[in-house]
Amino acid sequence: MAYLIILVILPAFLDISAAKRETCELQAAIGIRITICPFVYEKLTNTEKLVWLHNGTVIYQQDKGKVSVGKPEDITSSGSLVLTNPKFTSAGKYQAEVYNMTGAQMKSWSSFLCVMEKVPKPTVSYSCDKKSVIFSCNTGKAQDVRYSWTMDEKMLTGETRSTLTISLSKLKSVNSFTCTVFNQVSNEISDNVNPVCTSKSPSTQNLMCFQQKTVMAVLAGAAGIVIILVIVIIAYIFSLVCSQKSLKIKQPSQ
User: Fold this and answer.
1) Tally of domains within the chain
2) Is 169 among the domain residues?
3) Which residues are in the Ig-like domain (predicted)?
4) Is the pTM here over 0.70, yes or no?
5) How far from 56 is each of 15, 39, 95, 130, CA to CA, in Å?
6) CATH number reported for the structural domain that contains residue 145 in this entry
7) DSSP code string of 56-110
């Protein structure tokens, strides 16, 4: 029976959570001033009553020019609500209602506000291998952020991951790179990074190949000279032996 209750309640809870996410019509960043728009009532006068509610609780009330709840600076001249320092607790449903002097409602408006942390300023690090340089955009523990990259102040189309790979053959010593991170309420850009990587240029590689061939040719020539010297020495020794034998043969006949 307990399992049945859990199975019944859980889908309902998921549906409610999904509904709340779908009602996030406005977004705010923690600590960044925001004006709750698009509520505008240009005809607001001292004879009318303005009420703002947050999750059903009155947070601002102005009646006939006198503020009884909140502060005068909490709204604009058109009646929009100003949040000077939003917090996570600032999230929820906001309602604005305007009444005339007889108590008749002139305007009503509501919207759901979501509050998120602003993204931190990213830092960029890089490492080099034989063929490329790999950049990493570091944002600490920030979640649900998106990325973009620029090279020489021009956005790199399609580069939306936290890492970027550039071929060394395309890299110039004057190239500068930045990473931008953003979410629905804020964005930050890193400092410029000018990577320094060493690589073997084609001319150096060709030069090394030429030197290797030269060394092989020299070694082959040296080996040939050694063989010739060995042959000469053997021939010389052989001629000496033959000369001595011929002398021995001639001596008895005398």
Assistant:
1) 3
2) yes
3) 86-190
4) no
5) 22, 17, 8, 63
6) 2.60.40.10
7) TEEEEEEETTEEEES-GGGB-TTS-EEESS--GGG-EEEEEEEE-TTS-EEEEEE
